[in-house]
Design a protein that fits this description.
This is Leucine-responsive regulatory protein. The chain is α+β, with helices and mostly antiparallel strands. The chain is built from 5 helices and 6 strands, in the order H-H-H-E-H-E-E-H-E-E-E.
Length: 163
Amino acid sequence: MNEIRSEILKHLEKNSKADLGELAILLGTDEISVANEIADMEKEGIICGYHTLIDWDKAGRGFVNALIEVRVTPQRERGFDHMADRIVNYPEVTAVYLISGSYDYLVSIDGKTLMEVSRFVSEKLSTLEGVVGTTTHFILKKYKDHGTILKHEKKEERIPVMP
């Protein structure tokens, strides 16, 4: 990969709304070249999509996020990809990773309630043929997500004393 592509990707990963003109100046090239490189990388599947990081709690619409560790028995001649292809198709699933360690996948899901997430795990994920174990971890608070530090305002807990 050439250096200009690498630099474009670094900037877009931090801010997908980066201004093409600003990128061109930073990279010492013209705006059309930057736009063409981005379009080419989208066509080639290097850039797979653009996402907006939202603090849903601040927006007034909280979600329950969970990370599910999944252990499977890989199927002969299908390996791990076949099971991953099944899991990624559930709308609740936001990410699936093949991982090292005592589990095979790390599955990220969103739900409206703890019960909804628990039902998904027990009724859909755990019942898939080949799944031999799951462990669910509920995300209680996010401090950093996708490289962005999420600022949480501290509320004053002490009562002011009037003189």
